[in-house]
Every structure is written in C-alpha cells, then in structure tokens.
Amino acid sequence: MGLRRRQVLTGIMGLGGLFVAGSVPYRGNGLLPRALRPAAIVFPPVAGGRELSPRQLGRVGVLNGTLTSVSWIDETGRPLPGALSADRLTWISSEPLGYGHTYTASVVANGETGDVDTTAVFTTVRPDTLTSVTFRSNNLLDIQDGETYGIGLVLVAHFDEAVDRAAAERALRVTTEPHVTGAWYWLDDRNAHWRPENYHTPGTRITVAANLFGTRLGDGVYGRDDQRVSVVIGPSHIAIADDNTKHIEVFENGNLVRSMPTSMGRGGTAVVGGRVLSFWTHPGVYTVLDKDSVVSMDSSSYGLPVNSGLGYRENIRNAVRISHDGIYLHELAATVWAQGNTNVSHGCLNLSPADAAWFFDFANPGDVVEVRNTGGDPLDIGQGGDWTILWPDWQRGSALA
Q: 101: domain range?
C-alpha cells in the first residue's frame, strides 16, 4: 500500500510542475519527482558581444528537446541554407554567414512542456575594404599550382592593400613535405617573402595557404577570400660564377656538368644625368627569374643613353634573367675573346653562343646562381637577393619575431 501511494503522489506532484530538474529526498525514503523541463534553444556565442564572424557557419542547438524548425533569413529575405542533424539536436548552415548581413533566426523546439519558439537577430561585420593575396615566386609572377621550381624558390605573398603585418602573417601557412622550418620577411606592408635557412631539398612539396576570409587585416580591412597553392622542388641546379676564375661552374645534384668561361661587369661607376650607375656584377645569391630566347636590351631603360659612348641597344639571344635590375646570363659572341679572362660587360654575365644555348635549356625558375669575388655592393633583396640575407637577419624580418 505504501509503494502505490508514493507512485500516485509522484504522478500528481509531477503534473503540478512544482520542482526543478532532478530529485530531492522525501519522507519515508521516497523521492519527489522532478519538474517537466522545457526545451532550451542554444545560439552561437557572439564574439565581443556584437557580431558573428563572417567565416563561421550559422548554428542552432537544443537542450532537453528536439528542433522542429529553423530558419535564418538575411536582410534581403534570402534564407541561409542548412540542415537538421539526424537526431534533430542541431542545425548547421551549409555556407558561411558572409560579410555585411543581418540575420533573423527563428527557431521552434519541442520539449517535455511542449513547443518553445525563439527569434534572435545577428549581424556580421561590414568591412571598409576587402583585400586579396596573390602568391608569387620572387620573379613576381604568380606561382602555378602543381608546377616544379628550383631549389632557390622564394615564396611571395602580395596583398592588394596595405595590411597589419602581424595579423596577415598569422593567416599565412606554409607546409613542406618533408618538414623544414622557414620564416616570413616583410619588405613593406603589402609584400612578405618566405624561405627556409638553406636551399630547398629536391623533391620537397611546398603548400602555401592564406586563410583570409573573415579575418581582420587592419583598420577596416578584411580578407576577401582564401588562397592555396602547392608546388614541387625539382633537381638541384647551382651555377657558381667566380670572378677569380672568370668561369661559371654548373652543378646538378652536386655533380659538375659544365664549366663556362664568362665576362662579367667591368666594375666602377659613372655619373650620367645626375645618377650614379654601377657596372659591377654584384656579389650574392641570385635565382633564375625567367628566360627569353630573344630580349631587346636598351641601356636607356636604366638611365644610360644609347649615344653616351657607354650605351647600347640590341637584340640578345638565349637570355636568362637573374635580377630585377636587368642582370642576365646571355649569349654575346662579340665578347668571346674576353670570356674567361677579362670583364667587359655592364653587369651581365656574357657567354659564348654554345654555352648560352645550353644554359638556356638547362635553367628553370628558382635555380640558384651564386656570384662570388666581384666588387661593388652585395646584391640586395630589391634586386632579388633574398638568399643573400643571413638567416638571423631574415628571421628578424618576421612581423611575429
């Protein structure tokens, strides 16, 4: 009789809904029933109490019940697409929230006390400026996904707008297989270069990505979209041009494959039109930027008039460019007499027709050309001398150093 009485009381007390979830001791070692629990709708937390990230998905959850219907409608009346989970405990949108939206979220959930409906309004950030990033090699041409580059490849992240360097660098990711540690070096607020301490190992796969969408990159500046590109490092090609021998020794995977006489920059400077022009082949580590079977070379392009006595204008064959200020390894039959013994060029490395044709076929973007024992100032990064910078100095060029 006592047991049945407790059951009846439990039923009556439970219908009254007088108790919170759980149970408490009752006289006679019985238990009071817990109250019926209403469904509790859970929305995503809002960062800083103001706006949702454009990158995140719309989400709704429920406690003590199941979701009956969910809709997120933006300011234009467009519904945000999404789906309920099989257990009807969560709803997740199938696309990110995006920039500059105001969403009205209407949700109905069913629990032990029946249906509960809730409406909430969310906004996402509206940027003043959207910026994108382009991944390039240090030849300033876009990196081609899946292509092969030389062991001296330098990655360049070029932003359309000036960005906060630290914020942008946090959004950049470089992964290598096998793993190698590298660092970003900022030239200015729009350009960052990445390389490891030493040349890449042949066969390395490098993937660079930028998770920019929804990321704040400065005052009112946000990332327009994400970017990703992956490349492979080819065989080791290193050409060593030594002014002591006036030869270029070319190595492939550590093996000497050709020795080429050369004539490099004659040295010295001249003042032309108020500008000081240097005729040195600057010492340092260059990389192959690009190559053309025929290049029109005109000294007036860098301030040396053709009729100055030192100027020139002619078409040059088999030209491999290694610096941004116009240093090439190229064919010049007229200086074969000097190649291997005398420097007579304005800064380029002259080669015989046969050697120039061979090197043109051999060289690939990112291959290394080391120039040693010449005069003049060391090659700087503006000319393409990324590898000339000592590793500790390079690391200090990071915005996160």
A: 40-123
